[in-house]
Give the backbone structure.
Amino acid sequence: MSKTVLVVDDDPTQRRLMQAVLERDGYAVAHAEDGGQAIDRMTAGGGADLVLLDLVMPGLSGLETLAEMRAAGVTAPVIVLTANAGVETVVKAMQAGAQDFFVKPVSAERLLVGVSNALALIRLEAEVGRLTKRVQGRASFDDLVGDGPAMRMVKSLGARAAKSTIPVLITGESGVGKEVIARALHGASDRAGKPFVAVNCGALPVNLIESILFGHEKGAFTGAVEKTLGKFREADGGSLFLDEIGELPLDMQVKLLRAIQESEVDPVGGKRPVKIDVRILSATNRDLSQQVTEGGFREDLFYRLNVFPIEAPALRDRREDIPALVDRFIARFNAEEGKRVAGCAPETLALLQGFEWPGNVRQLENAVFRAIVLADAPFLQPHDFPAISGLAAPLPDASDAPAPTPTVELPPLPETPIRVVDDRGHLRTLEEIERDLIQHAIEVYAGHMSEIARRLGIGRSTLYRKVREQGLEGAIKEAG
């Protein structure tokens, strides 16, 4: 999803120049002529992901505007623009809450690097906050991604269940995020901050299930060289999440039922039961009622666990949440991999929202992870998801190296200068001049992209990207 940058400057020429640079790099740009307009947009008019704020403006100054935005609760990063690079000016701006400063006129490279760094820092801080809450067992339903109808229902039911100790059974396909919901249930309850212990019942060795769940005494069996508490006692005072509960063998289902009913466990080799205080949260991707009918799951245990069922929706049933999920994954993997991907190109987002995602959120997460690792552009492109788009990444033969000389003899470029001044006598933008130059080269060299790239001194992949950005695909077809 493209990030929006609000440019606040009373000089329309400065706004247009920064807009051209930012839009060429994939950002959406909004304008404000003064501090009042900026405050109105950031507090009630759609907001922005980042603000470029001129310090010297008529009416409210940049510092006054920044102070009012922060007082109104605006947390978006702000980069100030100043013609005076004095230490005092910079210190005042930073003390008022600015993340960075640019000395005007700012170069395109400095502008893009500064914007990228500020957005990356905000994403990193948010990700660190989420991870800290997860480790501390304080994740809440506010941390669940998605505001579509399906997820609103999950959050509503979960918030009600969290207020009591009622057993909750979370159902849904594999990969929908059942453990994330369980962690939110725990973090939103009065057990927040206490242990949250997750157990995948389908991954437990059959001969060790009892020991892993209920613990054992030293010497209770061959290999028991030390005492083990078991998952129930590890979760004492907190919550125990039994994932894939439908995989548990029947003989262990009996012992699990007793532990839940009596609030006590019998460690293997122990002399007496041990009292426990554990809230049970369970999950399954199976139809447990069908398993009960077929004799594969105990009816009494099913009714004990299924007191408060919550259905986790499949990703294909909540496509409106995909942009937010992608943003969350990009933020996380940027932090983990040291990358600076800014988001998804609009056509990429449309591609992801149109896919069926049989593996649900887990599959989307892995797809974004792969794309982040391989991406070499600020915004993820369709070819970064080859398994979904069917597109291969551009060959790295000329990422920015001159293309090889073609064997075809092409005519020399005629003396047809590109206009640099518009009809009113003002300089045209670099974007407009670049577009005319590329279009002219396409016509002269009959759409031979290798020759065009060589003549312009750029790589073929860069040329193809600029053609897409400038909407010149039709010119290539006509020239061919």
